[in-house]
Structure formats: C-alpha cells, structure tokens
Amino acid sequence: MSTFLGIDTSNYATSLAVYDAASGRVPVMLKRFLPVREGALGLRQSDAVFHHTAALPEMIDELKSKTDCRELSAVGVSVKPRPVEGSYMPCFLVGRAIGSAVSAALGIPLVETTHQQGHIAAALYAAGGDLYEKRALVFHISGGTTELLLVERLQVLRVVGASQDLYAGQAVDRLGVKLGYGFPAGAEVSRLAASCAEQPDPRVSVQGTNCSLSGLQNQCEKLLAEGRDPAYVSKYCLTAIAKTVTRMLQAAQAQEGRLPCVCAGGVMSSGIIRDHVTARVPGVRFVPGEFSSDNAAGAAILAARSGEGTHG
C-alpha cells in the first residue's frame, strides 16, 4: 500500500487529498471554501467548525468514489496553524477528529502536522521534489501569515523574516471587501489589477528581512478616497506586496546564502506578484494555485514521509 490521506480544515476551506508515494503524484484533491456572509472579513471559529462538520461527510463519500480507502497506509492531518507552542484554532479540531476516526477504523497510523507545514510540503512538491532534502527559503503568505521560513527536510528551522503587523492576505482581503467582493477576495483583486495598464510605484516598509504592511491598507484607502480607479488601487496593493517580497528575499539570500526560494500561500497566486519577483530574484519558484492556496496535499505527503505516525 502506498496511498496516504491528507485532511486540512483551515479557516478558509475544507480539504482532502490523496498522495500516491509509488508514483509521486497527488491524484485526488478535494476542496470546499467556507461560506462567508457578504461584507464580512472572515468567519467566527464556531461557524467554521460547523461548516467543516457539515461538509466532510459528503466529501468523504466523494473521496471513496475516487480512491479505494481500504488501501490507505496512513492519515495526515493538520491539527493547528503553526508548529509553535500555543498555536491553536478550533477549526482544526474537526479535521483531527475525522482523521482519528479514519485511523481507528482502518487500523492505520495517524500523523499529526500543522497547516503551515502542510503548505510547505505542498509547495516543495509542486516546485519540484528535488527540494525535499535541501535547505531552502519558503515564503508563506496568506490571510493568516506572512513569514519567510528557513526549511530543511520539510522542517522549519527558524523564521527568517515576517510582517510585524498586518498580514499581506489581510491587506488584499480588506481591499477586496471594501470594493464589494466576497471574502476571501484575492482572486477578484488580482483579476481587477490585471486590467490596469498603469504601473504604480508604491512605498513599502522593509527593514532587513522584516516588513510592516499596516501602512499599505492606509495607502489603499487614501487612494480610493481620492477617487482613484479600483483597478489601479488593486494593482498598487499587489505591487506593494511584490516589492516587499522581493526586498525580503534579497535580504534573506544575503544573510543565509544563495538558497533556493519558493513562494507559497494564496496571495502568491497573483501574476503581478510572480512576474515582479521572478524578474528580480534569480531562481525563485512560484507554486501553482491549487498547491499554493489552502489544500490537504501537504498533509498527505507528510504522512507518507513520516515513516511512523501515532495511532488515534
């Protein structure tokens, strides 16, 4: 048996995935975004827990139609946001409960990991499995984190840099919701920005490998108040994030050496960010959207690579 189930119940999506270690492929990826009411900037944790609980039985049925669950070797599940003490969100308890149940029912190991480690594993898989065993810089940018991580053998060695206040994904989502789009708003902000022919030159705040993004939200609100076109403001926002990412990566490479760089997380799906950064940081790799945004592929890969899990 060489197939491994991954489960991730983040504050954005319910995700299941199957990794086939024999072929090195992820043949099954299932995801449902959590519904957010119009104008809201996210979900209460109690609502997230409800939506995960409601979605998973149907998703498990769909999974069974796509793979033989009796052939699973282990289950990998995200049990908290990040691999640090005190990291906790109730929504991950739903995935943990389902993972424990599958583990017990099938008599297979349960491998507990974190949402961030899952992102890293999925990103390195999509960027090229040759990075699994190497030391690399992984930039994880989403609605819940903006961290530049030093990674080796899929483990976070340390945080090299981070935002000192607002996360990049928060800046994008707040702009998108202000423009009338649903949460999360990254895809709509990116689409709107792509229609702008002007090239903004935003101010950014980067101090070595750390940054501050709270000023970006203020700048975008000021531009809208001045009557600037929403497409221009959207491009301004994404260009500011691109400049910030570039400067932080350049500082990290100067500090850590010319390590491979991988950019992951939902915000990194933006073509504007990708094009800006790749033109200025040699060898940087961006991850395709399905492996960059929230997904369970990383949890499945980590289960396969763990060798031995803990039985639920």
TrEMBL record:
GO MF term (any one): tRNA N(6)-L-threonylcarbamoyladenine synthase activity
Gene3D superfamilies with a match to the protein in the record: 3.30.420.40
Domain Gcp-like residues, every copy: 49-299
Highest taxon listed in the record's lineage: Bacteria
Keywords of the record: Acyltransferase, Metal-binding, Transferase, tRNA processing
GO cellular component: cytosol
GO BP, sorted A to Z: tRNA processing
Swiss-Prot/TrEMBL catalytic activity: L-threonylcarbamoyladenylate + adenosine(37) in tRNA = N(6)-L-threonylcarbamoyladenosine(37) in tRNA + AMP + H(+)
SUPFAM superfamilies in alphabetical order: Actin-like ATPase domain
Pfam family, one: TsaD
Enzyme class (EC, first level): transferase
EC number: 2.3.1.234
PANTHER family according to UniProt: TRNA N6-ADENOSINE THREONYLCARBAMOYLTRANSFERASE (PTHR11735), TRNA THREONYLCARBAMOYLADENOSINE BIOSYNTHESIS PROTEIN TSAB (PTHR11735:SF11)
Protein name stated in the entry: N(6)-L-threonylcarbamoyladenine synthase
Organism this protein belongs to: Anaerofilum hominis
